[in-house]
């Protein structure tokens, strides 16, 4: 991928492209584009990126909400820039694990923990600094002699296809690191210090762990008002799609309302050695939105994404601004089948909300973000939940195969947004508590 001309696009847009490019090239391009005092000081620290203190870090790696801001309706404001780095453990480390060399494994563990603590020192744990989680795939635990049943006390299945409409690839990495920040320089610098050629980030040295991992893949994205609109030049969306300025999604709306997100407590493993951890499902979804923008009107888009009631009662507004803190999908007629039969359309959020807990709590904490990886629109659909089974249950509700069979809506057509969304990849991970985030033993 190539970078746009920094003279012709705003710095924000240029640096978004630099995050997608990554590496030293991406980082230095973003710094060179400075202009607003973002050149690093002589000591390499980034302007406006606060340093941090590992001492206060919570046990839950995924405890991000307490440091993220809220909008005027109380919805968590997600960080803008996201990078997912998939890594395999290096062949030397595979030998160490397989050979049961505990001294060498302890040394690797200590060094990785030092490197992660260095990052926490280099960046405040916030949207202005850096948020990150380290997750481990079933394949990682398989490498241990005592890992054949996976991590102790946690169901962590290999990813599988979850609908009859998909034929996804499966993540090949052992380890997945999710970096997030409002600062494009922060995600790039953290990534380069941990897995690239840099030995410091934000003016602080970072322990070298490059011998422990081999890069497998890199995925990127962004979440914020106006960001999809400025990337309408990619495949999968018309160049002139009237995506509202305020919309954070290529489909033209906002997501992640407080009322439709699981609280962090709901997604946290509450017992066993991995208590305070969570499970993570990451699917890479490609979206084909030409017909969404060229053939559907606003009313139809609202009906398909939310529900026909939302469309008829004009509950949503142009991009979701009328919804406040909740998409209000729980006061719809209860029988989704009957409803779909009458309306001939069933909404995405309406379907997915059928999988809420009996007390109305949503089981998934969605931390998904749009992407233009491969110069195509898509969404890295990252969710946290107590168990992968929760994800499968919600995904079944979202797929709505039960509705398609009997209601007259098709398996794809008029069935929420299925017609526009294509699952390309899936991966399952355990995000351990902080105490076990560094190369955990399956039975720590
Ligand atoms: C391109 C893909 C997708 C887009 C653009 C999208 C968009 C949205 C939007 C706009 C909402 C309503 C607002 C809100 O977030 O509260 C929503 C709700 C939701 N979506 Fe999606 N979504 C996508 C894929 C998925 C997938 C693959 C799942 C799989 C499980 C899913 C599960 C949910 C759930 C659980 C809710 C909340 C329902 C509730 O209120 O309980 N979404 N989505």
TrEMBL record:
Q: Fetch the InterPro entries from UniProt.
A: Dimeric_a/b-barrel (IPR011008), DUF7405 (IPR055828), Dyp_peroxidase (IPR006314), TAT_signal (IPR006311)
Q: Which UniProt keywords apply?
A: Iron, Metal-binding, Oxidoreductase, Peroxidase
What this protein needs as a cofactor is: heme b
User: Which Pfam families is this protein grouped with?
Assistant: DUF7405 (PF24152)
GO molecular function annotation: metal ion binding; peroxidase activity
Its domain of life reads Archaea
Region: Disordered; residue ranges are 32-60
Name listed for the protein in its UniProt record: Tat pathway signal protein
Q: Give the species.
A: Halorubrum tibetense
